[in-house]
Amino acid sequence: MEILITTPSFGQQSQEPWRAVEAENLTIRRPEGQHPLSADQLAQEIGGADAVIVGLDTVDASVFAAATNLKVVAKHGVGVDNIDCEAARRAGVTVVNAPGSNSGAVADLTLGLMLALARQILPAHQSTQAGRWERFPGIELSGRTLGLIGFGRIGQAVSQRAKAFGMTVIAYDPYLPADVFTASAAQQVTLKEAIAGADFLSLHMPGNAGDAPLLDADALGTTKKGAFIINAARGGLIDEDALVALIRSGHIAGAALDAFSTEPMPRDSGILTTPNVILTPHIGAFTDRANAAMGVMIIKDVACVLRGENPLNPVV
């Protein structure tokens, strides 16, 4: 059975996924060139592959039409907004992902970004590195309110960490029952309340290509003056132009973004020259443990599908 692996991060930090490949006796093919692949590029690469493991590549109806043997698409990660799941269903192709595999990794990054914003760690480093000895006043997380938009595995992991810093947590998630919030000692609120009540507002919702930003100009305008925005989820969730305008006006104190509406980010993007912004290249899931867990989970599910068995983590 041939598996096309397009994402360069598969097994990048751990040998465990490769050992899983050997144990399942799978043949691997990897394309040359830059990741992610467009739908046209992936359609040209897919050939007779029985399975494809993707990262941020676009998987639409044209890919399924070009595939001759495809039985399963596996997302090396959690969010499947780059995969047309309805087209997969029509083509009779199973889609699987790796839920929970990167929760701790993304939660750690989120807290790191919050601390970096609160204590001005990056400008302090750059100043000291340049030979200056300046003071950079900061704020403490203790006593501040963290607003979480999305309270699934990652949101709950962020909440747990924030509680250890003495923060009050408010959270919005329309898909979860009230007892989930109660068990995590987080206050369940509406979306408007989460946006307006947070000193730090962190996004942990899935996104869908083509959807309007969840935090558009109007929503961002209702944030507290001096609030910070963190996005380690999906870039399309935020109107980046509106965010830039509100940071430059002084209404929003700063932002830390690990996901962007276009990736890689265009060099003329206004966010690149905006002060009080931390930008990272979608590294939330890039830890040793997440890389191991993610790769092993999807290899096991790919093998299940190819044997005609039910996968553990089906999306479609």
TrEMBL record:
Keyword Oxidoreductase: yes
Record's keyword annotation contains rRNA-binding: no
Coiled coil spans: none
InterPro entries: D-2-hydroxyacid_DH (IPR050857), D-isomer_2_OHA_DH_cat_dom (IPR006139), D-isomer_DH_CS (IPR029753), D-isomer_DH_NAD-bd (IPR006140), NAD(P)-bd_dom_sf (IPR036291)
UniProtKB keywords: NAD, Oxidoreductase
Domain D-isomer specific 2-hydroxyacid dehydrogenase catalytic: 30-315
A Pfam family reported for this protein in Swiss-Prot or TrEMBL: 2-Hacid_dh
Family membership: Belongs to the D-isomer specific 2-hydroxyacid dehydrogenase family.
Name of the protein in question: Phosphoglycerate dehydrogenase
Organism from which the protein derives: Arthrobacter citreus
Lineage: Bacteria, Bacillati, Actinomycetota, Actinomycetes, Micrococcales
